[in-house]
Amino acid sequence: MKKLFIIVFTCFFIIKPVVSSHIIFLVHGYANPNVILFRINNKLIQNNFKSINYQYPGLFVDLERLGESLYYDVKRTQADTVSFVTHSMGALVVRSMLKFAASDFDFPVIHRIVMITPPNRGADIADFFGFDFLKPFLGPNVVKMKTDTLSYANKLPVPINTEIGVIIGLRGDGRGYNPLIKGDNDGLIRPKNKLLGNEKEVLIVRHNHFTVLIANDVLNSIINFLKYGKFNMD
Questions:
Q1: Residue 25 falls within a domain, yes or no?
Q2: Neighbours of 144 (CB within 10 A)
Q3: Exposed (0-12), middle (13-18) or buried (19+): which is 31, by Cβ within 10 Å?
Q4: Alpha helices by DSSP H, the chain
Q5: DSSP secondary-structure letter at 37?
Q6: Contact call for residues 193 and 120 (beta carbons, < 8 A)
Q7: What's residue 17's pLDDT?
């Protein structure tokens, strides 16, 4: 009986309970600083999420290397599960990360991803500027975001076994914010080029590519999806 008491006493004070940890990575877009996501980050903190407003050199570092760096940075957190909130090219950085995480069975489970105005099928504006002779000025990633089927964006892995919510910004008048782009758009991308095809939910909002990041209706929808897997709670 005395031995049993010692074993129970030792287990109670020495063996710590396993606590699951979850971290949300915010991943900004091409040529933007992470401060562009400050309102979203503040909203996450207010809702008791643990978040990392991730910074990366998106202008002059290749998407492949950016994905690899994100992979190692996520690993370093030693989190059990992670979620992502991405803006624009940030979605491609996460999808590039999947190339490195796919064969790593110790990589954290990806719970949910909110993609805000992502160029999943390429960015229409990149078709105007995605030329090799502009790489010294615009970096290596604009050409990778072209909309043709052979572009880097169109060949990246698609997240599976993960709840994905895509937020689409547009003007709602059939013409869009940018007259150079045919059809409705957010100023940089048409709605059809934002979709992966396996989204759990799609939210369409009347905001452009950047004002979508500070709109209260969008912030609330992001929190809803991260908590419940759906944008609207009606």
A1: yes
A2: 24
A3: middle
A4: 2-14, 38-46, 63-77, 90-101, 126-129, 135-138, 152-155, 216-228
A5: G
A6: yes
A7: 42
Q: How far apart are CA 52 and CA 41, in angstroms?
A: 8
Tracing tokens 């689409």 back to the chain, one arrives at 168
- Name the percent of the chain in helix, strand, coil, to the closest 5: 40, 15, 45
Domain that holds residue 133: 20-228
Domain presence at residue 3: no
What's the CATH number where 70 sits? Answer: 3.40.50.1820
d(Cα 169, Cα 62) in Å, to the nearest integer?
A: 26
pLDDT digits (tens, 9 = 90+) for 166-214: 999 999 999 999 999 999 999 999 999 999 999 999 999 999 999 999 9
Report yes or no on 4 lying in a domain. Answer: no
Q: Domain total for the chain? A: 1
Q: Is residue 10 in a domain?
A: no
Place of tokens 């909002």: 205
Instruction: Check pLDDT > 60 for residue 113.
Output: yes
Measured in residues, the chain has a length of: 234
54 contacts 25 by C-beta, under 8 angstroms: yes
